[in-house]
Specification:
This protein is of the alpha+beta class. It is built from 12 helices and 9 strands. The protein is 49% helix and 18% strand. Helix 1 crosses helix 6, helix 6 packs across helix 7 and helix 7 packs across helix 8.
């Protein structure tokens, strides 16, 4: 594959990831800066939020129902549980069997994450129950950001919590990028983004949600036949192309409705609807509420 073509595909994948993550409001917070000494274990209960742990010093083992076997984490590693499943942190692979040597101190930053707008985020739905970003295998940018977050946690000046949360938000976004880059068996939208043909079609859909897309026109963007494109898209993403397109339009509509300077009629026009009434029917069918009520909820969040 020539370099211009490779760059175009990378741009397409980045565009899809950016538009999806940007369309949903996300809350990422550092909730604890913990230190463990000697032999220890800590049970983390299931929560309705996603959870993550960034190792800042030492090492630990993580086990639980989302893992086939205990994972060993070292300084700089990040483990994420997008669905907040129950897990166990400990100083040894078997918390009931003390290690032969007394372990050193371990510190980590723990946090929560959730998407606070929208109920069908295709990126979030495509993430596994647990994934790890290894410091030694990650990009230089990821390592630098993790180091900045660690340094900020030790800074006791005013505003530290706010800065930590901003950095943690960026770290999670980069963690998703690292996962997409290195995952052996991605699924859903993330799997589609690794396919050269589907990523081009997805990028076009996300960039121009108001376009009158058809399966045929999207297949042309992907460089495939109509039937082959529809079959591959459905099998990979988990939804037919036009169903996905409708869901994405509703997501964009919800985001645009958050801008009070845009009337409902203006949003309808931007998304390719010939009448405000048609847009209102579409939005209520997919979201269960009308655009006006969705706008009010956005203001309350």
């Amino acid at each position: 594959m020539d370099l211009p073509r490779t760059a175009a595909l990378e741009d397409a994948r980045d565009a899809v990831l950016e538009t999806v993550l940007g369309a949903y409001r996300m809350r990422v917070e550092i909730t604890a800066d913990v230190k463990y000494c000697g032999t220890w274990f800590d049970r983390e209960p299931a929560t309705r939020f996603g959870q993550f742990h960034l190792m800042t010093e030492g090492e630990c083992w993580v086990s639980g129902e989302a893992l086939e076997c205990a994972l060993h984490l070292r300084r700089g590693d990040l483990i994420v549980f997008p669905g907040g499943v129950r897990h166990l942190l400990s100083s040894s692979p078997d918390p009931h069997q003390p290690p032969e040597e007394e372990p050193g101190d371990t510190t980590m930053l723990c946090g929560e994450l959730e998407f606070v707008s929208g109920n069908n985020n295709p990126i979030f739905n495509a993430l596994p129950a647990c994934f790890v970003v290894r410091s030694e295998q990650s990009s230089e940018a990821f390592r630098q950001l993790a180091q900045m977050l660690t340094a900020t946690s030790r800074d006791r000046r005013w505003g530290r919590q706010m800065v930590q949360n901003k950095l943690a938000d960026s770290l999670f976004t980069m963690a998703v990028c690292e996962y997409v880059r290195s995952a052996e068996r991605p699924r859903g939208l993330l799997a589609a983004m690794t396919d050269a043909r589907l990523s081009l079609a997805l990028s076009a859909m996300h960039a121009q949600p108001g376009e009158d897309w058809t399966i045929q026109s999207l297949a042309q963007v992907a460089g495939m036949s109509r039937t082959a494109f529809a079959e591959l898209f459905t099998a990979t993403v988990g939804a037919p192309p036009m169903q996905y397109m409708s869901q994405w339009r509703a997501t964009e509509a919800r985001r645009l409705l958050g801008n009070r300077r845009l009337s409902v009629a203006a949003v309808a026009e931007m998304l390719g609807y010939r009448s405000e009434a048609a847009f209102r029917r579409f939005f209520k069918r997919l979201e269960g509420i009308g655009p006006g009520k969705a706008r009010s909820r956005n203001a309350d969040e």
